[in-house]
Structures are given as structure tokens and as C-alpha cells.
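Dear colleague,

Following up on Tuesday's group meeting, I ran the structure prediction for the two-component complex that the binding team flagged. I've pasted the input sequences exactly as they went in, so you can double-check that nothing got truncated or mislabelled along the way. The C-alpha cells for the whole assembly follow below. Feel free to forward this to whoever is handling the docking comparison.

Inputs:
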Amino acid sequence: MATATATPRRAIECGVPDNTSFLHPVLKRNYGNWKYHDRPRPGVLHHVSHSGEEVWSVRAGTQRQMDVHTIRTLCDIADTYAEGHVRFTIRSNIEFMVGEESKVAPLVEALTKAGFPVGGTGNSVSMIAHTQGWLHCDIPGTDASGAVKALMDELYHEFIREDMPNRVHLSTSCCEINCGGQADIAIIIQHTKPPKINHDLVANVCERPAVVARCPVAAIRPALVNGKPSLEVDEKKCICCGACYPPCPPMQINDPENSKFAIWVGGKNSNARGKPTFMKMVASGIPNHPPRWPEVSEIVKKILYTYKEDARPWERLSDWVERIGWPRFFEKTGLPFTKYLIDDWRGSRASLNASAHIRF
Amino acid sequence: MDKKMHPTPMLDELESGPWPSFVTGLKRLAGENPMVVDLLGQLETSYRTRKGYWKGGTVSVFGYGGGIIPRFTELKDADGKPQFPDAAEFHTLRVMPPAGMHYSTDILRKLCDSWERHGSGLIAFHGQSGDIMFQGVRSENVQAAFDEINELGFDLGGAGPAVRTSMSCVGASRCEQSCYDEGKTHRTVINSFLDDIHRPSLPYKFKFKFSGCPNDCMNSIQRSDMAVIGTWRDNIRTDEALARKYFAAHGLNDLVNDVVNRCPTKAIRLVKATEAKAGPSVSMVKLSDEHALEIENRDCVRCMHCINVITGGLAPGADKGATILVGGKRTLKIGDLMGTVVVPFMKLATDEDREKLVDLAKRIVDFFAENALEHERIGETIERIGLVNFLEGVELEIDANMVATPRTNPYVRTDGWDEEVARINAKKSQAA
């Protein structure tokens, strides 16, 4: 290893590593030749190749933000009970591949004993796609890992079972940029007050024209405040989106009292059945209440279990609402339909009911 | 190493319950690393005050301009001294994952050992763009931490106005729905943009994502500027043994309610087994001696639903490739945008095919670099200038697959109509 010298080490610009050496041997041998799969039990996928070879993958939930000891524990389990190869899913679940069915039960047992829930396959509620929050983000309105831990504690049984009408994807995001992404149910901070500006700092910290350009509603303009060049916000125009905050931290948008949670439903990326859909806001004004955010969990569970009870097989949350209609969604979930849920952004007329289609 | 722990009554509440606790993990690290003791102190403060306390800055490794997310604490006492000095610098290294996020335990252990030496010991598998996030390192250790990870065969990902880290699904390595070699394509495309990843100089971020079929497990349509989604042109393939197995287990009601009725374009029909037959564009499979399915593939939009339900009994065709969509992103600034089709189908079977994809990607990124406004994503550029201008700029032919419907308003100048028809006809006769 090179020691510190006048010339630092030049990076090897190797880019994306070749995954060949990391692939389980059965995966490598049957690359591109898989025939079908089934699920012998929740958390276990069984894939069969055209060659006749089989592989069992055991999926377990993780906390995503992992200490090296947790990762080593997972590696120990992979070396003792599986065959030394793992992969991660997009939702931070870990998968262990084994070439023999007899290895599945001991592997499941070892994972369960070590505190890793086995599940997240098929019609389960999978792990929540989430962001960094107070742990590492520079603009967070809330925490991510904590909110996810709290909610997954409550949805644990839905992770280890496959009892939902179809798969359920959740996401959380700590600001309206929504790094958690579209989901069947998404939990996102919604700011309700314009930014509070520290005029002493704006001139030194912010590139003012760039901040002005960033505002979606042209509510920001340059101004001289107390003799210093700064920015001012037309608070009547401001939609409290927080877009000005990342390029200009003195325009503080996060507000411990007034930044609330909103809940969105019906996002779907898959093309299965209908085209992919964006999620829709169905609730807001929910307090930011660490460490366990009980008010958020309550509404998420209400939506989730109404869907579970009422949807037909293979209906994702969006498919279910498409069948029953929005009025019944609000009626069944008991959520209030308020004027704030009627879109008024550009293109919003496309979200209105341009028909006489009414369900009674 | 026995730095005293700060009281963390709120975080402590996240140690109970059945889901794995990141707090328990952090506390374990805190026993060995004072940085994590102070990290817990700052995080507990955030839980109490409901405020974040990190600010960005400029930290980099030699030769690169991006890939490190710098974090400096803003939680300071009256004299401007950090309240939690051991976590005053807590930077993240974004590191690109292998395609499909496959690892051997050997490489994971080496990455852990290295990060324990240089950083906090906290790693996220993975960030929302796919990076392995090595979280928590002081400025002075960034270079050494990167050097070791780099020697292990890994490289930094994107940050800022750059091409970003990418993700591909498990795909060909373990999925029967795979329509191209997602891993190889992912690696070929991304490794053609390393300069744009490591040295941010675009108007804003640009993301690629690679999904092997229209189930789009990588969420590429709404999470990437350029989505490569596997599909096929020929007929859905069938396997009678597996189709019969499905039917025997589920029966006629499930077949009708879950498969036939859920076809979005009514391309599937239930027919008598004795009268069923396949045709040039019709897939047919017998489910029993009585019942069979016929699928009119010209009406099928490749949504994947029936294949998902009767996996193996129905399967993607053999003439596979991908649909390319451009412009997906979340709200800021103009509102949410899905990616939209710019190439209905391209083959991705050979290195030559993949080079064509790289070439297209380069034309699109170049167009983006030259024409997008600052902090504008490519979807917003297209919204601003119109799809046709974009297509002409990147030298792609228009196709009726690119629209949901033709224009619904008359606000257009059509004085070039005759020339355009003549051009299309000339092209058609040339191709014939």
C-alpha cells in the first residue's frame, strides 16, 4: 500500500465491476437460460433452468444502514448455511442462493435466529425504499431509517407472509424531492410554511440568480435587506416546495412544528395490466413525531388493511382504486377528501373527472 | 477507545421490535469508534429538535470531481466548536455496485475490513441510485479509504451534475423474464461514461437504469433519464406442461378472473381445446383437455401480466431486445414525468448491438449537455422544446409508438406537410 507522498495515487477508473466472479456457480452456469420459478414458501424463490438445474434463493430483510458486524454476521450465515454468494434487491433485502433444497430450512432458521426476517417475496409488503434523513442528508425534514424501522416493526407480519392481493411497495422520503420514489404507499414530508430566510448569510452562501431560477412559481426575487444583498419570497405565491433550500441553505424550509407528513398511494412502475402510474396524495397534515411516528403508521396501516380486505387477487393498490373509484377509497379508509387534494398544477385538468362516470 | 456514550433515550426506543435495528448496529460500532459515539449524539439531537445538522462542502479524491458526499456538522456551541467533534466530518463515499448487486462473502468481508480501518464501519446496501454508501469518514481519510476500495476493483459513483450510478435487475443471472443481458449492458453503457461520472460537468444529473422486462423491477421509467426496458417482438412462448400445472392448481374461475379479464388489450381469449390453434401471430396453449388460451400477439402490449401469473407456461418471445424511454424524474421543477418512448425496439443481443445503444446514449447525453438549461433534467428539456426537436437533435426517427394519442389541438403550422409525407414515402420505398 502506497504511503502518503507528494504525488497521490492515481485512481484506476474501473467503473462498474464485472459481476462474474461474484455470481453463484448455478447462476453463472444458467445465465440467460432460466425457465420458470415458483415460491415454495414466503421468502423463498425456486428457479428452474432449461438445463434442469435448480436454485433456491432465500430473501431476508435488513436495516439497510448496516454496521460491519451485521454484514459479517450475514456473511457467516452465507458461508455456513449457504454457498458464499449473496445479492441485494432494490429494496435492501439480501438474498442467499443455494443449489440444494435441503439447505433451505436450516438457512431460514439461521437467519430467523439471527434476527433477520425471511420474507419480502410475492404478495408481501416488502422492505421500505428509503433515504438518508437526519443521519446523513443536508436538507432532511425528518429521519428515514428510524421511520422505516418503526413502520417495519408494525408491518413485520406482512413482510414474512404473502397475504396481500398483490405485492406492496412502500417508500419514505425526507423532503419533497422524494428520493424514496414512487410506491403503492409513500410517506413524504410536506412543508406548509415558506422558507425562513437568514438575510445575513444569503449573499455569502447562495448564488442568487440560480436560486431565483430554481423556484417553480417565480416567487423569489433579489432584494436588499438591511443593506445586504439577499433574496425575498412572495409568500402568497410560495408553494413551500423547498426547492430553494438545497442551493441556498439560509432559506430554511424545515420547520419542526409546521413541516408535516403527507401520504401518497397508487404509484406503480411495472407495466403489468395498466400502464405505470404516479402516486396520488391522499392525506397530509400528519405530525413529524419521532422516534416512532405513530400517527403515520396508523394511517398507512388503515390504507394497507383496507386494501388487503377489499382488493381482488392481482390488484395492486392503483388497480384496486381504479375499480372502486376515489370516493369509495376515501369512504373506506375514512380519510377526509379535502380541497388540497384537487390538483391545480400545470396539466391538472387531466386529473379531473371529464365524464359522467359516477359510482353510486 | 472507551469514549463515553451520550444518552440517547429516543434512539433507544428504536432498538425494540422485530425488525433489524440500525441503532443497535450503530451502538455496536460506537464501542470501537468514537466517531459513531458522536454520530449517535448528533442523531439523538435531531430526534429531539426535529432538525437536520449536516451541511455539504467540497471533498474529493485525486483526479475526480465527484463521488464523495461531504458532510460537516452544523451543531456547534457558542464558540463555534462542534458539539460532537468526533463526528464533525462524516463524509460518504458513493461506490458503484456490480450489476445485479451480486457479491461473494469474500469481497463483502474485504470491503468491511477496509471501511473499519478508514471510516465509521457503517455501510448502506444500497442508496436509491444503487450506490454502496460507505458512510462516515473524515476528510483526511477519504483518499486512503477510496484507494483501498479502488484496489479491490470498485470505483466511485456519481454525484452532482453528472452521469450517475446505475442499477440493473437480477435479470439473466436468475430470472426467466430477462429479455437482454442486463448486467453486460449496464456495465458497457456506464463504463462508457466514466468521465461524465467522475468529473461533473452536465447541466444536471443524468441517470440510466436497466430492467430486463416490462415489470421494470428497477423502477426505470420514473427514476431514470434513460430507461432500458427489455421486451420482445415475436409471439409469447408457451409450455403446455407448466400451463396445465397452473390450471390444475387454480381452475377456471382464477383463469378467467386473474388472467383473461386482466389482459389490458383483451388479446387473450379462452377457447375450446379441440378448436384451439396457433397461428403466425397467435400463441396457443392447452390448459386441459377442455380449455386452451389463444393470444393475439399483434394486440398484446407486452405488459407481462399473464406471464407473471402463469410463469413458465407463458414466457416472453425469442426475438428479444429493449424499448428505450427518456425523461423520467420526480417532481422538481415542473412536475413528475414518466420516461416516454424514443426507441420502440432495439436488439441487444451482441456487442455490436450494445455499441449502438452506447452510441445513442452518447448522442442523448451530448444533446443534454448542449441544450438543457442549468438544473434542468432531460425530460424537462423535452417538455420545453417538444419531442420532435429532441428526436431531430439526437437523430432518431419519429414513430407512432412514441405517443399515447396524436395531437388533440390544431395549434400547429403544417405548411411542411407535403414535403414530410414525400420524405416518409421515399424512405419507405428505399427500405422496401
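Chain A has three domains: 21-113, 133-191+256-343, 196-251.

Cheers,
M.
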